[in-house]
Amino acid sequence: MADAAADGGGEEVAALSTGEQAYERIRQDIVFGRLQPGQRLTLDKLRPVYGVGISTLREILSRLVPEGLVVAEGQRGFQVAPCTASELAELAELRLLIESHALAQSFAAGDMEWEGRVVAAHHKLARMEERLLAGDDSGTMQWKRYDFEFHQALVSACGSKALLDLHAGIYERYLRYQMVFFIFWGPTSIGEHRALLDCALRRDADEGRRLLHGHIQGCVDVALERRLLD
């Protein structure tokens, strides 16, 4: 009986692990645009792709609704949340509000270890942006991961896990717009990241927040100028 109970427990853990893996895969597929905005999420079609059952898929998609990545359509099921100009503007405003506050806290409290994280994160991002500028877009997903790691490093000494978690959630929804529409504005973005690094090393929070405002707003402006959104 003990062995049977142990086996059952192992199967339950394995099932939970499989469900969590599917959740992360679907989430990333939405963020990185493999599942397109407005796409209907048919459970029967998703089941063989993600390797989980209908009930697990329904639970995963329900979890993604409050995250703003999936829309529930009542009896008709689920679809990927659409991308709109108004939501991008709202996410940009929220990201700026949260990241500006965390940035100031982090610049004030950051130590040498924090400086090392910021410099290392910027180095990886700068190298990837150079590749993009040269026309090599094969590392697009890696570019956005490095972009997040750099911004995360800048605020990582803010002293609040809740603030960092909130920032990560908003950033990921904002990131979806950049990935779906591949918003990269070349030398401007590269220069702004370098300037943010310099501000961090000087502990110049006022200039850092000013740069951050232009950096985030630039994504919105590029999307609107290119008429990428309604």
Describe the fold and architecture.
Residues 16-83 form the HTH gntR-type domain. One of its GO terms (molecular function) is DNA-binding transcription factor activity. This protein is mainly alpha-helical and 230 residues long. It folds into two domains: 2-80, Arc Repressor Mutant, subunit A (Orthogonal Bundle); 85-225, GntR ligand-binding domain-like (Four Helix Bundle (Hemerythrin (Met), subunit A)). It contains nine helices and three strands. It has a three-stranded antiparallel beta sheet with strand order 1-3-2. β2 and β3 (78-80) form a beta hairpin. α1 packs across α3 (54-64), α5 packs antiparallel against α8 (186-202) and α6 runs antiparallel to α7. The chain is globular. It starts with a helix and ends in a 5-residue tail after the last helix.
Beta-strand segment tally: 3
Structural class by SSE content: mainly alpha
Give the N-terminus to C-terminus distance in angstroms: 61 Å
Rg (C-alpha, Å): 20 Å
Largest sheet properties: 3 strands, antiparallel
Strand order of the largest sheet: 1-3-2
Low-confidence stretches: 1-15
GO molecular function, one term: DNA-binding transcription factor activity
Pfam families: FCD, GntR
Keywords: DNA-binding, Transcription, Transcription regulation
Domain HTH gntR-type: 16-83
Layout of helices and strands:
Layout: H1 2-31, E1 40-41, H2 43-50, H3 54-64, E2 70-72, E3 78-80, H4 85-109, H5 112-133, H6 140-155, H7 161-181, H8 186-202, H9 205-225
Antiparallel strand pairs: 1-3, 2-3
Helix pairs in contact: 1-3, 4-7, 4-9, 5-6, 5-8, 6-7, 8-9
